[in-house]
Every structure is written in C-alpha cells, then in structure tokens.
Amino acid sequence: MPIISSPQDFNVEDLYVDLRPVLGCPLYLKCEGFNFAGSVKLKAAAQMVDAAERDGSLTPDSILVESSSGNLGVALSIIAAARGHRFVCVTDPRCNPATMRLMRALGAEVRVVSRPDAAGGYLASRIAYVRELCASDRRYLWLNQYANPNNWLAHYRGTAPAIDRGFPGLEVLFVGAGTTGTLMGCARYFRERGRPVTIVAVDAVGSVTFGGVPGRRLVPGLGTSCRPALVDESYIDDVVHVPEADTIRTVHRLSAHGFMFGGSTGTVVSGAERWLAAKYPGADPVAVAIAPDLGERYLDSLYEEHWLRRHFPDLVPELFPGAEPDLQEPAEEPCAAPVGAPADAPGGEAARELTAVTDLTDLTDPHRSRP
User: Fold this and answer.
1) How far is 207 from 178, CA to CA, in rounded Å?
2) Do 183 and 304 lie in a common domain?
C-alpha cells in the first residue's frame, strides 16, 4: 500500500485503455492523469523544480513564475505549496475556469494576459509579461518550460521507459505537441536505443510549432503561437494536425463510453485514429498514444453546451441532438483578474502595462531573465 509524504510521489505509470472496443481503433491510450496534478505535467514540473533547487537558483526568497495554459500551472502550484515556495502563473483567457480556481485554491497567484500576440495566440504575450516580471524584481525565477531541458528529461527518464517496459514490441507512438517536452523526451529515448518506433507528433490546426499557418485556437494544451526552443524535428517521423472540431468530437465519443478525457487527449486520439487508418488500413500494429490529462477541468468548455454554442455552433446539433435552439447562456464569473498588481507588490509596476512583443527568439536559457 503506497504511503507518501509529498504529492509528487504518487503517479500511476502503467494504466492503459484499449481503444479497440471503444473506437474500433488499434490503439492503447497511456493515461497520465492519475496523480495529484491530474496531468502528465507533474513530471516536468517536479524535474524542473528539483534541478533549480539543486543548482541554487531557487532559494527560499524566490518567487516561481511560469507561463502556462493550465496543466503545468496546476502541477507547479502543487509542488510550490508542498515545498513552501511562492508561485505566479501567467495564463490567458483560454485557461479553463476550473483550472484557475484550482491553482488559486493551492495558493498560487493567477494573472491573465488578455492581449493576443501577432500570431493571434497568447504565448508570446504571456512570455513577454513573464520577462517583465523577472526584470522588475530579482526574486522572480522563470523555469521556462519551453526551453528547459529538464522538461524533456522528465519523460526521457520516466514516461518513455515505462512505455518501453509495457510494450517491448511497440511500433508507433503518438505524442501531443505543446512545449514538446513529452514528445522530445520520448523521441530521444527510442532513437538513442535504436528502437524502430515511428514517432508521430500530434498538433492542433492553427499552431505554428511545425510551420503551420497561425490561426484561432480555443482548446488549451497542445499547439503554440511561438515555436518552442525544445523541438527538434530530426527525431520526429511524422506530424498530424487536428482541427479543434475533431478534438471536441473525439472527447465526446470517449465520454459516451465512460472515459472522460481532456482536450489534449482528444487531439492526440483523433490524430492517431486518422493516421492509423491511412497508414495501417485493416492492420493491427502495436500503437500507443499518450493521454496528457482527464476531462473534469473541461466541463465548463468542451463538454458544456453553452460554450459550444458560442464557439462551435455547428457541433451542437451533432453532440446535443434535440437541444433547444434558444438556450440562454449563464453568466460567467471571473476566476482571476486580468494582468495587474498593486504598485507595492513584487512586479507591480511591470504588471500595470504589458509591453508589445517584438522578439521571442531567445528562449534557450531557462534562467536568462533572472538578473
């Protein structure tokens, strides 16, 4: 019987869902949401914080700050609470309300950047704000999940070996691409061991990570509006781009069978299903996809009829047959204030006004913005 004293000490590593009876697809889904953070991001968060504590950059006076659309923010909130660190999560309006509430309940400060960047997303704007905070007060420490090698090392040392042990005959691995930490850690592991595993990255339509045309993205998690420094396409065999409508259809198909997963998982499963149908028609390869999180935090968005009416109205008749066409939307309660802070708070002056983003090319040093 497991007995733990730290929330990061518990993680279910060996749970898979066979999707053949569910979707008719030869795919095993590795469930990464069964830990206290509810997502795969707990591994990267723990690895990055451990490294910062070891090298002395994270001290008792430090204030951790990170840009996150949700899952890493929750993971860092948990670790910060357990270790007595202060943490500021810089997010954007796409972050699920439940996720914002959870971070605040764990003691984190949540700041919402509402100005889109030049690509129509929020990543560049969030990072610019993080840089301003770090420049305003040397206590701020940015772990920089987009460039920190400990992000991919967490999966090189943990996630990939676990898959390897469970599926020694693995032929295809599908991994969603956000910061690309999970993707690069797994890809490097199998490549360096000479394993003939096809690595397929799954990204969202509208993401620029693999050279795609920037576009509207409403589902938090996968995809970026600024190419992450961690990505190395030489380790990747193929890329699938999934429209968000297909992401939403897929999570609803899974929930109809009792499996409630998050948006990132819907994207990965949708992309894997399409890729396997094209590359292995009628065959039964040994294929695994990584499910980053579960679905409870998406109840206010992907699973909510009013949200879908507002953003994906064409899907409503398909997902909610017989629904009334004139439902009145419930009023939304703000879960976190927009970017701003009292002048006497750490970084308060920087929080008053978010400067325009001009350059995000230098994302290679996770501690660069710390004076």
Assistant:
1) 9
2) yes
Measured CA to CA, the distance from residue 118 to residue 138 in angstroms comes to: 28
**Is 191 a domain residue?**
yes
Q: Which of 143, 170, 111, 288 is CA-nearest to residue 230?
A: 143
Domain that includes residue 109, residue range: 41-148+333-352
* 50 plus 26 within the same structural domain: no
Residue 339 CB partners (closer than 8 Å, separation 6+): 90, 111, 112, 113, 114, 129, 351, 354
Question: DSSP string covering 183-202, please?
Answer: HHHHHHHHHHTT--PEEEEE
CA–CA gap between residue 320 and residue 252 (Å, rounded): 10
- 247 found inside a domain: yes
Question: How many domains, the chain?
Answer: 2
Q: Are residues 261 and 141 in the same domain?
A: no
> Quick check: is 369 in a domain?
no
Q: How many CA atoms lie within 13 A of 292 on its CB side?
A: 30
What does the alpha-carbon distance between residue 251 and residue 315 come to, in Å, rounded to a whole number? 13
User: What sign does the CA torsion over 283, 285, 291, 294 have?
Assistant: positive
223 assigned to some structural domain: yes
Q: Give dist(CA 183, CA 43) in Å, integer.
A: 13
Per-residue pLDDT of the chain (371 residues; tens, 9 = 90+): 889 999 999 999 999 999 999 999 999 999 999 999 999 999 999 999 999 999 999 999 999 999 998 899 999 999 999 999 999 999 999 898 889 999 999 999 999 999 888 777 788 899 999 999 999 999 999 999 999 999 999 999 999 999 999 999 999 999 999 899 999 999 999 999 999 999 999 999 999 899 888 888 888 878 878 898 999 999 999 999 999 999 999 999 999 999 999 999 999 999 999 999 999 999 999 999 999 999 999 999 999 999 999 999 999 999 998 777 655 555 554 455 565 443 334 444 444 334 333 233 334 444 433 33
Q: Which of 290, 250, 279 is nearest to 267 (CA)?
A: 250
The candidate with the shortest Cα–Cα distance to 73, out of 335, 275, 355, is 335
CATH of the domain at 17: 3.40.50.1100
CA dihedral (243, 248, 251, 253) positive or negative: negative
Element (H, E) at 51: helix 41-54
